[in-house]
Amino acid sequence: MTNPYEIATIFAKEFASIEYALKRSSTYLRKDRSVAEADWNAFAKDLGQEFYDHVVKTGIAPTLIGKPPRRLLANLQWDPPNPVPLENVVQLIINGVCRVRNSYLHGEKFTGGPDGQWERDTKLVAEAYAVLVEARAFALS
Predict the structure, then answer these.
(1) In this structure, are residues 138 and 55 in contact, taking their beta carbons and an 8 Å threshold?
(2) Are 39 and 29 in contact (CB under 8 A)?
(3) Residue 38 φ/ψ, nearest 5 degrees
(4) Which of 116, 118, 96 minimizes the C-alpha distance to 108?
(5) What confidence tens digit (pLDDT) does each residue in 38-95 have?
């Protein structure tokens, strides 16, 4: 297996680059907050269902879509216990890409776990990165 931190570092840099651009746009800076935050939800909606369909068709994120990441709750339990596949572009960006970013940067990736967890973490990070690259290209086309 290759070093999973290599793709994770590339993913984190790409995420930061896009988030920086979103925060500095008049369209994707959240206006309901006192601090500067990117409006990933609005960005996802503007990508549209066509983008989600493109991601599914190209097969760049089968694990991210089919067996999406969960979120860690305050009681240190993962939610939902049995995640269902992502069904639309907003879920793909928010519950897929952004959740992988949060899990990685907050220390919940590459920490062990059941057999196959490192491989799953690596797939999720690589697929989230692939979706971000496609989203950037899609938004600029």
Answers:
(1) no
(2) yes
(3) -75, 140
(4) 118
(5) 999 999 999 999 999 999 999 999 999 999 998 888 998 888 889 999 999 999 999 9
Q: Which two tokens stand for residue 37?
A: 């935050």
Angle at which helices 40-58 and 4-23 cross, to 10° = 140
Q: Which residue has the tokens 């879509």?
A: 65
Q: How far apart are CA 32 and CA 139, in angstroms?
A: 23
Query: Alpha-carbon distance 57 to 106, whole Å?
Result: 31
Helix, strand or coil, per DSSP, at residue 7: helix
Residue whose token pair is 């493109």: 54
- Token pair 């339990």 is found at 77
Distance CA 64, CA 125 (A): 9
Q: What is the pTM of this model?
A: 0.91
Query: Is the C-alpha dihedral spanning 129, 10, 6, 76 positive or negative?
Result: negative
Q: What is the pLDDT of residues 116-138, one digit of tens each?
A: 678 889 999 999 999 999 999 99
Centre a 10 Å sphere on the Cβ of residue 96 and count the other Cβ atoms it contains.
25
- The pairs formed by 104-107 with CB atoms below 8 angstroms and a separation of 24 or more are 104/8, 104/11, 104/12, 105/12
